[in-house]
Amino acid sequence: MSTINYEQIEHAVKLILEAVGEDPNREGLLDTPKRVARMYAEVFSGLNEDPKEHFKTIFGEDHEELVLVKDIPFFSMCEHHLVPFYGKAHVAYIPRGGRVTGLSKLARAVEAVAKRPQLQERITSTVADSIVETLEPLGVMVVVEAEHMCMTMRGIKKPGASTVTSAVRGVFVDDVAARAEVLSLIK
């Protein structure tokens, strides 16, 4: 488990400010390195979390039908540019043998995975694989929709462009009707 080195972040932020031609001793910037260090500790707190831990609480319930938690908001940081991306995750699974988890655990797992330097594709597959490995469901489907600030404020500069990724496991791979049900419920 890693710990955040606040002093090192503060020093790095001062260097960045100087490198772009700013004066880190200017009144408005005096506390910026400390604020950025606290922000990084918060937005990268998922580095110290295993999303599978959220699925250790399992309830016995005679239910082998779809469970879907949709529109789970998340914020993450693009590992290529250290710029935010944000959106919604939709997590669906079909329990096996009465192994269900608390609904909030699905949202907590999304948050734990998102709070790291990240790629959207990795968020999607990590959440799906964590559910498969711990709950052993009949199937899992995770769909993530996000807007990436690295595409909005720099580079191609296309605000409003949305990226959609999906991870499909178990029965959802071959059962087109089950997959279509999830997608229709998400919309």
TrEMBL record:
Pathway field: Cofactor biosynthesis; 7,8-dihydroneopterin triphosphate biosynthesis; 7,8-dihydroneopterin triphosphate from GTP: step 1/1
GO biological process terms held by the UniProt record: one-carbon metabolic process; tetrahydrobiopterin biosynthetic process; tetrahydrofolate biosynthetic process
Annotated EC: 3.5.4.16
Catalytic activities: GTP + H2O = 7,8-dihydroneopterin 3'-triphosphate + formate + H(+)
Residue ranges constituting the GTP cyclohydrolase I domain according to the UniProt record: 9-186
Pfam families in the record: GTP_cyclohydroI
Enzyme category, top tier: hydrolase
Residue sites binding Zn(2+) per the record: 78, 81, 150
GO cellular component: cytoplasm
Alphabetical list of CDD domains matching this protein: GTP_cyclohydro1
GO molecular-function terms, A-Z: GTP binding; GTP cyclohydrolase I activity; zinc ion binding
Quaternary structure and interacting proteins, as annotated: Homopolymer.
Family in the record: Belongs to the GTP cyclohydrolase I family.
HAMAP family registered for this protein in UniProt: FolE (MF_00223)
Protein known as: GTP cyclohydrolase 1
Taxonomy of the source species: Bacteria, Bacillati, Bacillota, Bacilli, Bacillales
Gene encoding the protein: folE
